[in-house]
Amino acid sequence: MNSWDTQASCDLRSTVYEEPPQLVFLTYIARSGSTFLAHQLDSLRDVNVSLEAALPDGFVRPEFEISNVSALDGLIDALYGRRGLFSDSVDAQMAKFRYWGIDENVLRSRLMAEEWPVSFPRLLRVALDLHFVGRPAPMSVYKMGSCLGKWDTLHALFPEAKVLFIKRDPRAIYASQKRAKASTTGKSMAGCVENFSQGYRQIMNAERRVAGEEWFHHLRYEDLVNDTHGELARIAKFLGISLERHDSVTDYFSRIPQSQRHLHPLVARAPVHQRVTRWRGELPMREVKRIEIVAYDSMREDGYRFQYPVYTVIYTIARPVGRAFRLGSRRMRRLCLLAGTWLIAWSRRIFTR
Fold first, then answer.
1. Which of 168, 214, 228, 328 could tie 221 with a disulfide, CB 3.0–4.6 Å?
2. Are 352 and 334 in contact (CB under 8 A)?
3. pLDDT tens digits for range 124-162
4. What is the CATH number of domain 5-276?
5. How many helices (H) and strands (E) does the chain have?
6. How far is CA 308 from the centre of its chain?
7. How many beta carbons lie within 10 A of that of residue 334, not counting itself?
8. What mean pLDDT do residues 67-75 have?
9. Of the listed ranges 168-182, 235-249, 270-284, the one predicted with least confidence
10. DSSP states along 173-200
């Protein structure tokens, strides 16, 4: 049974809404401060935020459709961690669903009552309805995690939904991933710095394509820490809700499974401003330089200061110059060499003033 059921009468949220809840997707790169944001959003009267899960959506994770009883049994076994459907990593993420507090027999009955086949959009709606039973609110936030920059695909699946994306200084993300141990494997979350940097750049490039859409809202973790109320006010305006908070016996952090709480020790506390720049004492120069070079454009647009600005600018300018130097004619090579020399000298004057 959902542990919230017995506490529902203590929750001061409204209990009657004529319309179904507005669906909101909370997307992020791991270690971007999403759980802190989820904790803050869930404290608002008009918002319910799910625990993290990885339902089979068909565009980030493999597609899975319920078309018969055998498929339904297989999905429920996977969601409750008894049997896998896909790869070990995907199955481990899917099994987090068992912490949503939904009785599997109730879930089975609800899905049996649906018109088959049942695909991801309907599965998600049913799961959220059961996850938030006894806690009605006009906004249901699905803590989706990374959608690999496929926000346009997400919008095509859920045209009525809104999307939040919390981003963070990539150097801080990588440093945090190096410290953190994944709850599913016990190993460091971080891969090699090159793969991380390239992946970050791809996601930020995808963000540019949807940044102006009315259904999409992004925010920086650093701004959320430094001005929590202001950022929440901007999110509330985007969602069309009030900032009124509710009184509840349980808060978001208390619902996080014990096996995952070591990843979020500061979520329930006041914002820790030192977390913003903690990476400076943790990452070696080589990794900082590589992240700054690969993620140069997005870091500049998002207002992050470079630790090695001269090196980064020179490399960023020299790379296309060098490419032209290799491919161009002899005359072009001479022009590129002169231009590159001038640009390097100009960069040094600018950054050493």
1. 168
2. no
3. 999 999 999 998 899 999 999 989 899 999 999 999 999
4. 3.40.50
5. 16, 5
6. 27
7. 12
8. 97
9. 270-284
10. HHHHHHH-B-TTTSSBS---HHHHHHHH
Confidence band of 12 (pLDDT split at 50, 70, 90): very low
What residue has token string 């203590």? 10
Structure tokens at 295: 């993620």
Rounded (10°) angle between helices 170-179 and 193-210: 130
| Main-chain dihedrals φ then ψ at residue 26, nearest 5 degrees | -100, 110
Q: Which residue has the tokens 């929750």?
A: 11
Token couple for 19: 């319309």
The one-letter amino acid code at 51 reads L
34, 121 in Cβ contact below 8 A? Answer: no
Q: Which residue, chain included where needed, has tokens 């900082």?
A: 288
E strands of the chain, at which residues? 22-28, 47-49, 139-145, 162-167, 216-220
240 φψ region: left (φ > 0), alpha (ψ -120 to 50), beta (else): left
Cα separation of the two ends of the chain:
65
Length of the chain counted residue by residue: 353
Tell me which residue has tokens 């070990």: 88
* pLDDT tens, residue by residue, 158-174: 999 999 999 999 999 99
What is the DSSP track for 107-147? Answer: HHHHHHHSPSSB-HHHHHHHHHHHHTTT---SEEEEEEE--
